[in-house]
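hey all, quick one before standup. I had two proteins in the batch that finished overnight and I want to keep them in one place so we stop losing track of which output belongs to which input. First protein below, input sequence then structure tokens straight from the run.
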Amino acid sequence: MKFRTPSADGILASLIPILSPPKPPGADARLGLRITCEAISEPGVRGGGSEVVAASQEPQGLQGRFLASQEPQAGEFQSATVPITCTSCQHQPSAPGGFGGDNIGINEANIPSAEGVLNFIALKYFKIVDPSKREERNDFLEYLKEVRQVLYVDAQTGSLIITVECSSLEILEGLWNDYCTGHLNEMAQKFLVTEDILKEFGLIEVKLTTTILEEEYIACRGYFLQHSAWDVLPINEIGLHSPRTPTRERLEEMSSDNQRLQLSIEQKNGKIRSLEYKVLELEESLGSSHLLQQNIKQKDEKVTSLNQVIQEREEKLAELENRLEDAQARNHKLTHSLKIKEDKITTLEESVETLDDLVSETDKLNLLKDEKIKALEN
């Protein structure tokens, strides 16, 4: 009986399934964030809806290089990006010609378009920043990175591509829970729609809606459930996986315990990051409260100053009222004195009239006397 000697290629081909390391968890656990935008310039006027597709990319992009395209896999949709050098978790590609001018996002009817607003958001808030400068960092990216563990965000004209790759089922469930409760959309609305956006386009409101496709979430969840049972097999002297032994059973138990411990650690780390983020929000709120207290203090000082002015004017008014009362009292006295004098004048006038009558009678008597004297003389 002749035995066929296997070739080297055949031996290598048979060893590849054994020697090949398992795909790292999370390699296919990618989700696409789809953001729709509605721009409102004035009551009754809407700029229409536009969509920004957030797609996933290889996590190696965090090291500074990204593929121009990649093959679509289950649970994700294909996208294309431009090569870009990564220096932080926030990036901004160079704007092409004609983009970012004075009329960015303005259509022929002179109404801001939703696509233009999204392009402006992509170029303004997803750019290269200095991570050490808090004012330059995008709070939405901070939320995704620190709380939800987003690996990379790439902004380019026409679309906003966000890579979301979960490294564990806990992280995936946390992101999905934020989406289902609306918290993810609230964070996008809070941190991406700012006063700068509204002022730039003369808008009164911009509404963002973030969507995660359920089939993509199910595909990612299925991936984690499928790979949750993978254990690292012990290696024998020739570098191959050894068969199942009691030692292997123990290693499987230890690996399972390690996985549970790792999930617990990741969950606690996620909670810690969430608490840190909440502390940051509280500190910002405290800063706002401090400013509010300063404003209230300034207003209280102004009120105190106004109260002093009012008190001074009330004192002056009281003084004027006292002077008015004194003047009225003097006027009353003068009026009374004038009345007495008028009464005296009336009495004197009556006396003068009486004297005038007496003088007239005296003149008459004197005249009669003279006439009688003349008559006696004759």
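OK second protein, same deal, sequence then tokens:
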Amino acid sequence: MSNFKEKSQLFIMGLMVGLLIAGGFFILKLDNYFQELNFYKSIAKTFSTRNNSETIVQLEDAAPDKEKKLIVNKTKTKKTAFENDGDKTNLILNEDTLNTHSAKDSLLISGISTDDIVVRKDEFLFTKTIEIFNLSPVANQGISKDSLLEKVSGINDDKPISKQLLNTEFWQSPLNYKGYKMSKNKIVLYGITSADGIKIYKLEDVIYLKNAASIFKLDYSSDFKPFEKIADEAIINKLK
């Protein structure tokens, strides 16, 4: 009987020791299992972060301008994805800066009232009637014949000799362009601000404008035309 008790005690003690050893081994294995699980989770998270950053970069490069702006704005909160890549981070910051300036400029432009916009127009200076000096040989020949008849007949014709006059308007352009418009009895001059030294001649049915040392040929036109400067010495000598 005593042998049976001793064997029972030994069996129970052995069983308890075995359970303790098995429990310790199980706890150790369980701890290793959790460590490996955390390790695999960290690896999966790293790969996920890299894939997201690569997707963002690819979308940023391939997207049109409008979509690119949206991507840049979204990546403001994802700067950690580019912490190891200085070039890409700088690109995003530069895009954000440009978008901010564009938005500010748009606000400034939209805030300007149309009442504050001043549109400068052509400015009328003055008008003056200028005589056209007719240098045509036929006209001068007619005047000479009339004078000779008056001397021979002794009769003085008190009728005034008809003169051709040209109503001349002087205008100043805000763009400082120079030219003219001309009809039969009127000429509009742009870019000439003074009538001093202005003379108008008619030679062989062509109208010439002399301004100081420059001579310009004028054509009848209701549209603006730039001045056409004359370099023909024969014409210049006749208009002196």
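Flagging for whoever picks this up: The chain is about 50% helix and 20% strand. The radius of gyration is 51 Å.
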